[in-house]
Amino acid sequence: MKENTGKSKYVMLGMLALTPQTGYTIKKWLENEYSHFWQESYGQIYPTLKKLVEEGLAVSSHNSEHGNGRGQIIYTITEPGKKELSDWLSKAPEIEKFRYEILLKISFGDNTTKEVLLGHLDEFMKRNEKLLEDMNGYMEEMEGEKGQNFDCTYSKLTALCGIHLYSAMKAWAIEAKGIISAKGEKNHETKNT
After folding, report:
1. Helix (H) or strand (E) holding 59
2. Region 135-146: what's the mean pLDDT?
3. What is 8-90's CATH number?
């Protein structure tokens, strides 16, 4: 389960401000568009939506035309919900937390072999290449949305950030591999005591 950052309320309000949605469409949107920069616990989606309705920030309605006959619950942001979202958007964002385990492992590189580090860097490059493909795919999808009553400008900006970030991480990994490869085998082996 992902850490609850206390921002679930604003994630849901922001998504509902785009268009009325079901919990399922929110989940899919989080998986596809937001996962490169924001992790939200899927277990938080429905309780958060329920709380938004209780607080009058959203309303729910049943739509029996879709789904498997049970119908779907559609959530729509209310005017107080829009104000709540606007108030949150006007506040300065918290300082980003940067956590990459690979950087810890590289920083302790004197305690292992260069082959181990090069293997970690190869995997890191592959992950970043895949993420770059995903971001470029999202950009192409959003280009296809032009003229369909949906402005993708801000979604494109988040994907563009991902493109820059993952390109930089891939470039760093290539450079780090070169530096590690040029460095002689470590001078000491870890001793078993």
Report:
1. strand 58-63
2. 81
3. 1.10.10.10
